[in-house]
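Encode chain A's predicted structure.
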Amino acid sequence: MIFDFQGGSGGTTPTHLLKVQMSASNQQVIVDITTARADVQQFGINVSFSLVEKATGKPVITGTTFSRVSYDNPGQAQRFSNARGQRDAENRAAKLIADNVKARLASYFVAGT
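Encoded structure for chain A:
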């Protein structure tokens, strides 16, 4: 999000502070009945955020968002593939969260509400 807001440059002195509280979960969605191992898992992120004006210390925006993405678990024999699938799911979920928060912040800075 920092790169998207500032484009890689240092930017100007910030006038607002974004506070984010996040929780993650991992659930087994489909379980193989013969091996009792998960075939498909779901990774989720729940986020609460608030944008605080630094000059006054008052929150100008508060909101919540969430993301759920699934990934395949190819079995016990392919541990690296499972770890990579989970990491990819985490990245995709985080990208969706960032896009949701950016859209809400953009709405505030354009419309003022």
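Residues 79-111 form the longest helix (33 residues).
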